[in-house]
Structure formats: C-alpha cells, structure tokens
Specification:
It contains 4 helices and 14 strands. By secondary structure, the protein is of the alpha+beta class. The N and C termini lie far apart (54 Å).
Length: 206
C-alpha cells in the first residue's frame, strides 16, 4: 500500500527544511537525506550528462516512456531508512501513475519505481555504498550504477530489504540486457556508456 501525502509543519521536518534551504542557496547542487544525514553533491560535469542522454535512448526505443511507465531524470524517491530520508536518482523508470504516489517534498513512494540509475561523480562512494543499502531497503527491483571512477557498470537485483542479493559487475566489451521486469527488453553497450562518461583533465592538470 502506498503512503498518503501528508503536509507537516517545518519544525517537524528540520532536516528537510535545511535541505530545501541549501538547494535555494546552491543552485545546481543536489541535496539528499540518507540515513538521517544531509548529502550535498555539486553540479555534475558534461560527460555525466552525456551518459544520461545516451542511456535514455534504449529505454525510449523500447517504448518505456509511454503506456504504463515513464522515464524520468531527477525524480524524488522517499526512503524508509530514516524519518526524513529521500534520494534523487539520476534516472528512474516509474509506473505511469506515479503522480498518485506522492508522499511529500516532491518525493514519491518506492512502490512505483521499477529502476533507479546513478552515474557516479565526485560522490561515487555514496552511489556505491549508502545508496545500495537505501535502495535495497526501499525494495527497488533494479539498481544500475555507471561507475566512472572504476570504469564499470553494476547491475543490482533481488533486494531483500537490507542489500541486493544479486550484484553483477560489467566492463567494456560487455553487452547487458536488463531484466524483463522493466516491461520491455533493454540492452546496454557497456563500452559505449563508459566511453561517454570519461572526463578529460582541465588545462594544466595533465
């Protein structure tokens, strides 16, 4: 069953109030609360955005942005890991009726999420550790990580409420077909994705 949307006074949500103030003061930054901790991520670089654009294409080709599902960047996900916890995955596949599952602070019930996807930046440890636990606790069926730090693609499935019991790691040269639970077949060329995400050093940095 989905949680109902509830508006609470600001004094009952001190972390969310602080998070929203930070977002107002730091345009372009992403602020999340995981494990009752505020996490602030700076704006990503160009290759991060390029990877996300490339990743949307196979989902669109599989007609997953119509019918009974929608592909959305930066949608808020309410988490069960803390009283005010929420995350903002880079990309998510949700049920088409996700609007009916609004909880609060522009975040939606995990029940309507089929996939969450993160492309790592300077906060790669969060994507590879804290968010694994958070998304597994929310029982998101599929978590995909484009790990630009270690040049890998992770596919995590079968959440048990504490972790993902299946964790497959792929490298350049692999082709990955995501689970059919998404609603259609989506195949990813790992090499192309990782190549799109490579950043060049700034002038003077080698």
């Amino acid at each position: 069953m989905s949680a109902a949307s509830v508006e609470r006074p600001a004094y009952e949500r001190p972390l969310i109030t602080q998070a929203n103030l930070l977002m107002d003061r730091l345009p372009g930054y992403r602020v999340e609360i995981i494990g009752d901790q505020l996490l602030v991520s700076p704006p990503p670089d160009g290759p991060h955005g390029e990877v996300l654009t490339d990743l949307t294409l196979p989902f669109l080709a599989a007609n997953l942005h119509r019918g009974d599902s929608r592909l959305i960047q930066g949608i808020g996900l309410w988490l069960p890991t803390g009283a005010e916890d929420y995350a903002i995955p880079d990309l998510a596949l949700v049920d088409a009726d996700y609007r009916d599952h609004l909880i609060e602070n522009n975040c939606y019930d995990p029940v309507c999420f089929r996939l969450v996807l993160e492309v790592t930046s300077s906060n790669y440890r969060t994507d590879l550790r804290a968010k694994v636990t958070a998304y597994a606790s929310a029982k998101i069926p599929l978590y995909v990580i484009v790990d630009r730090k270690h040049n890998r693609l992770h596919v995590l499935t079968d959440p048990d409420g504490a972790d993902y019991t299946t964790h497959r790691v792929h490298t350049s040269g692999d082709t990955v077909t995501l689970p059919g639970s998404l609603g259609a077949e989506v195949t990813l060329d790992v090499g192309e994705i990782l190549a799109a995400g490579r950043a060049k050093s700034a002038p003077g940095q080698g």
